[in-house]
């Protein structure tokens, strides 16, 4: 016997009916009288606990932003009215903003830094540039094939208005690329033997001439591909 697939629309309708039966109106508030856990209302959907305030607000005003939290603005802690429930900034954003200096037009990063001077932040589990983290937080996801470029010229600035998502394109119109260790060794041998010019090596390995020069001189640091070049 085939197992029936769940119908999201039917489940949402049943959940809304269940939530409606567990709230009552007190003045302008819709007070929850159903089960609670650690002082917060919940209703079960399959085997998961769902916040009824989130369901009511999404049905009334549309979906919430990813990672957003809800805050009750009235004096009733169990109120589920979408008018009295507001969307708050995600906790990761608050943690990042504590490390920013807002005293001037530039949002200066006061936390850890990379050796290049750019801010170092943990918006998710992995370290990335602080400007990129603030861009993802307030603007949205970085488009594929782009990296975050600071327009104001201040490396420690993380103001989302002072950065932009620039296409990862090199000076020759070639896609930005991180050379591997084998390619670095080949470039150094070819440069030392004088077999090819700088421009020929740049075209062959799809790199900019400046990167080829740094590799040949031994000043290019071979490492893991950075997130800004992904």
- The proportion of residues in beta strands is 15-25%
Mean pLDDT: 80
Low-pLDDT windows of residues: 224-230
Question: Count of helical segments?
Answer: 7
Query: What quaternary form is this?
Result: single chain
Cα(first) to Cα(last) distance is 47 Å
Please describe the biggest sheet, giving its number of strands, its sense, and whether it closes into a barrel.
2 strands, antiparallel
Structural class: alpha+beta
Question: If you had to describe this structure to a student in words, what would you say it looks like?
Answer:
The chain is an alpha+beta fold and 230 residues long. The protein folds into 3 domains: 81 residues, no CATH class; 76 residues, no CATH class; 49 residues. Strands 1-2 form a two-stranded antiparallel ribbon. Strands 3-4 form a two-stranded antiparallel sheet. A two-stranded antiparallel ribbon has the order 5-6. It starts with 7 loop residues before the first helix and ends in a 13-residue tail after the last helix. The C terminus is likely disordered.
């Amino acid at each position: 016997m085939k197992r029936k697939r769940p119908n999201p629309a039917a489940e949402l309708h049943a959940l809304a009916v269940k939530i409606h039966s567990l709230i009552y109106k007190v003045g302008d508030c819709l007070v929850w009288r159903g089960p609670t856990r650690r002082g917060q209302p919940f209703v079960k959907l399959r085997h998961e606990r769902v916040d009824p305030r989130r369901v009511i607000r999404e049905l009334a005003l549309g979906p919430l932003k990813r990672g957003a939290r809800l805050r009750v603005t009235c004096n009733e802690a169990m109120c589920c009215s979408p008018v009295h429930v507001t969307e708050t900034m995600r906790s990761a954003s608050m943690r990042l903003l504590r490390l920013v200096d807002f005293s001037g037009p530039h949002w200066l990063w006061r936390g850890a830094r990379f050796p290049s001077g750019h801010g170092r932040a943990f918006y998710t589990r992995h370290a990335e540039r602080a400007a990129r983290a603030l861009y993802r937080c307030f603007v949205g996801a970085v488009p594929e094939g782009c990296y975050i470029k600071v327009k104001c010229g201040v490396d420690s600035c993380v103001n989302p208005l002072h950065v932009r998502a620039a296409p990862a394109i090199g000076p020759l119109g070639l896609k930005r690329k991180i050379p591997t260790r084998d390619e670095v060794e080949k470039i150094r041998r070819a440069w030392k033997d004088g077999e090819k010019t700088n421009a020929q090596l740049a075209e062959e390995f799809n790199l900019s001439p400046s990167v080829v020069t740094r590799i040949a001189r031994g000043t290019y640091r071979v490492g893991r591909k950075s997130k800004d070049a992904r």
